[in-house]
Amino acid sequence: MDFLLFQLKRIAGVMISIVTAPGDLLGIFWDGSGRSNNLVLGLPSVIIGTIGFLAVFLMQWGGTGAMIKKYSDRVQSNTNREELLEVDLRQALISQLSLAGGGAADAAKVQKLRAEDPRTEEIRELGDESIIYLNKLVDLEPENKNHLYQLAIRYFKRGDSANKSRAIEILKQIAPLDQPGLPAAHLQLAQRLERLPANSLMEKRNNIETALEHIKQCLTRDAKNIEALKVKARLLQYKGSNTESREVFEQLFEENPVYFSPLLQLSASDSERATILDSAANRYLAELREKDVRKDTIKWVRAWEGVSSVLIQKKDFSRLKELLEKDLKQYSQADETAGRVPFLKGHLCRTYLSWANHEVGNPLLSLELNYSEEDQRRLLNFYSKAYSYNEKNQALLQCLAKLAGSKYPQIVKAAAEIYDPSATNNLPPGVLNQIAMEALNRGNYREAQKYYERAKAISPNNPGILNNLAYAYLQADNDENQLTEDERISNASRAHRLVEQAIRLLPGGLRNASQMSMYRHTMGTALMQLGNFPGAAAQFELALLARPNEEELIQSVIDCYQQYDLDASPYQRQLENVRKEKQDTSPN
User: Fold this and answer.
1) Domain that holds residue 377
2) How far is CA 431 from CA 353, 421, 471, 530, in A?
3) What is the domain count for the chain?
4) What is the pLDDT of residues 47-94, one digit of tens each?
5) How far is CA 539 from CA 199, 323, 467, in A?
6) Is residue 549 part of a domain?
7) Positive or negative torsion for Cα 455, 460, 464, 468
8) Would the pTM of this model clear 0.70, i.e. be above it?
9) Which of 126, 501, 502, 562 has the most CB atoms around its CB within 10 Å?
10) Same domain, 378 and 453
11) What is the rounded CA–CA span in Å between residue 95 and residue 461?
C-alpha cells in the first residue's frame, strides 16, 4: 500500500513539473540523480495515460466537428440547389404566363402551374431533407441560434398549422421580446404579426405595437437591415405615425426606387410627388440600361415593372409606349431573347388600356355606358391598338364586349370588327361575365343566367361571377315570362347558396369593403324572397354600413321591418334625408 501511494505521489509530482516547471524537467533528465531514475521508472505510465486521455478527447472533438461540418454542408448544398430551382421555376412561370396572354395572372393559376412543374417536388424533397440535418445540428450545437432559425424557417415552409406553431416557438426562444436576440428571428416575428388577421381594432393595434418592439430589437443589432426598415415604415403608417413613416420610407427610397409609391401617399404637395416620380423614373431607366440587368430576365422584368408603373403614374404614356416599342424591336430580332417579346407586348397592351382610362374613362366601372359616341370612338382607337399587342387580355376583352352593347350602331359594328364574342369559341369567363351583365342591363335575365352559368363552369371559384349569377336568379321574376311560386322559391334558394359560396371565397382584404356590401345586398334579397325577413334585414343593415345613401337598400330594410310591425321610422327618416340631399344637389 505504501509503495502504491509512493508511485501515485511520484506521478503527480511529474505532472506538476510538466505544467509548472518545464525548465526544471529538462534538468531532471540530465543531472544523473536518483530523482532522475525515479522519473524514468514512472514516466511510461504517465505517457500512456496522457496519450489515452488526449486520444479520447480528440476523437470525440474531431468526430463532432466532422459531423457538424458534414450536416452544415448538406444544408447549404440543399439551399443552393433550391435557390437555383426557384430562379429557374420563376423564369419558366414568367414565360408561360406571357405566352398565355400576359396580364396579371390569378393566384390559383400560378399555384396550378407551380404544382405541375417537377421542380416543385424536388424543392419540397430538398426542404424535408434539410429539416433532418438541421435537427441533428441542433442536437450537436443546441445553443447555436442560426441552426434554430433555419429550422424554424423550414417548418414555416411546410405550411401546416402544427409546423407553423413549432416554428413560432423556436423564434420566440431565440428572439425574446424584452431583449435583442437573433435579428433575423425578430424580423420574422414582426412580419408575421404584421400579416396576422385581427378580430378587433384593439387586437390589430396590439399586434402592431408588438411587431414594432421586435423591429426595435432587430435594428439594435442590425441598424441597416433593409427588410426591418421596410416593416417599420409600414407599421408606423398603419399606426398613423405618418411623419415617422415617411422618414423611414425616404431612407429606403435612397436605396431602392421601388419605394416611390408609399412616399407618394405620404407626400403633402404636388411638387413633392412630381420630384419623387422624376427621381424614380430616372433611376429605373438607368437600371434598365445596365448590362447585368439586361442579361438577367428577372432583373430586367423588375426594372420594366418599375419603369411602367412610374411612367403611368406620371401619365407619360407616350414616352412609355416609345420605350416599350424600342425594346420590342430589338428583342424581336434576336432568337435568344425572343421569350421577352410577349412580356413587352403585354405591357404595351396595358399601357394603351391605362391611356384610355386616363383620356376617356373605364367603361367597366359603371353599369351603363354613358359616354358620348365620340368618346366611345376614342376608346375603340385605344382598344384597337391594345388588341394588336395582346388578344387575350381579359380587361381589354371585357371593355370590347361592353362597347358591343353600345346604343350607337356604328360603335357596335366597329367593336365587333376588333373582337366579336359571338364568333369566338371558348370565351374567357371575364367576357362571359360582361355579356351577361349587358343582358342584365337590357332586362333579359334568362340570357344573363345562361352566360353567367357558362362563366361559372370555367371559373367556379370566382366570387364576383357567383354573386352576379345569384342576382340574375333573383331578378328572373322581372323577365317577360312570369314565374310560378315554386320557381321563385327554387331560384331564391339557388341564389342564397351561390352568394353564400361567394362570400366564403371573397378575399379577406375585401370583407369590409363596398364589394362585400354588394354581396350582403344579394344575400338579403335572397332571404327576403325566402320569407326570412329578420335575416334579410340584418344583411341589408350590414350592407348599409358601406353604402348609407343607397335608396334601394334603405327601402329594403323598411320593408323587412314592416313585415314584423317593427319601428322603421329611423330608416324612413334616413331615406327622406337621402332623397332631399339628392334633390338639393341635382343640377335641375
Assistant:
1) 315-418
2) 16, 8, 18, 31
3) 4
4) 555 555 544 444 444 567 888 888 888 888 888 888 888 888 887 877
5) 20, 50, 15
6) yes
7) positive
8) no
9) 502
10) no
11) 25
